[in-house]
């Protein structure tokens, strides 16, 4: 696939490390476009994640389901960001999570084997992936602190400070689940809290 130099994928890839033009050309060539309907499961728990996704349109979530069918929303993805179940992808182990579209979605996707081949042969691409994973891990640790130490209202405020646009993108029942708060309390915060 040929992607223009101003494609959001290039900007996302080069957020932390500027890729040499030859590396960008090789990277751009491994992606294909795919679509999904609303509420479509892209990756199921128990399956190995085979693709790294780049969201061009739509909203998705990664979630966990326990033995009692309770769901825990872990992360949302939307344009322009990467998606998929990253731990399953990187370790090539069965996923414990589902990756689901919340709205009709358009993705670029690349097979893990292609990404791995480029990481093995192109030092700048390997450095880019490594640094991106470091930033992702830092965000995960920050989120763990919020979940364990913050009040429900403070979690809500932090979400609005970090991603004020998310209220227009994601149905509120999923946001409440993501924050680990009751949907009724979420509605109260919507009416009361201003950032």
UniProtKB/TrEMBL annotation:
Under the heading InterPro entries, the entry gives:
cNMP-bd_dom, cNMP-bd_dom_sf, RmlC-like_jellyroll
Q: Which SMART domains match?
A: cNMP
Cyclic nucleotide-binding domain location, by residue? 26-83
- Sorted alphabetically, which PROSITE patterns does this protein's record hold? CNMP_BINDING_3
Natural source organism: Dawidia soli
Would you tell me the protein name for this molecule? Cyclic nucleotide-binding domain-containing protein
**Signal sequence span per UniProt?**
none
CDD domains recorded = CAP_ED (cd00038)
What Pfam families does UniProt report for this protein, alphabetically?
cNMP_binding
Q: Read off the SUPFAM superfamilies from this record.
A: cAMP-binding domain-like (SSF51206)
């Amino acid at each position: 696939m040929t992607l223009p130099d101003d494609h959001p994928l290039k900007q996302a890839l080069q957020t932390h490390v500027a890729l040499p033009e030859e590396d960008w050309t090789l990277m751009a060539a491994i992606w294909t476009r795919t679509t999904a309907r609303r509420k479509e499961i892209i990756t199921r728990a128990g399956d190995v994640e085979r693709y790294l996704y780049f969201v061009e349109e739509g909203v998705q979530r990664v979630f966990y389901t326990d033995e009692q069918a309770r769901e825990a929303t872990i992360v949302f993805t939307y344009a322009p960001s990467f998606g998929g179940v990253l731990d399953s992808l990187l370790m090539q182990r069965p996923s414990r999570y589902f990756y689901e579209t919340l709205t009709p979605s358009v993705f670029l996707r690349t097979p893990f084997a292609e990404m791995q081949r480029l990481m093995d042969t192109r030092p700048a691409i390997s450095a880019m992936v490594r640094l991106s994973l470091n930033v992702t891990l830092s965000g995960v640790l920050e989120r763990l602190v919020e979940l364990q130490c913050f009040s429900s209202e403070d979690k809500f405020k932090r979400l609005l400070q970090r991603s004020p646009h998310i209220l227009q993108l994601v149905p509120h029942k999923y946001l409440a689940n993501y924050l680990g708060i009751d949907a009724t309390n979420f509605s109260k915060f919507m009416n009361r809290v201003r950032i």
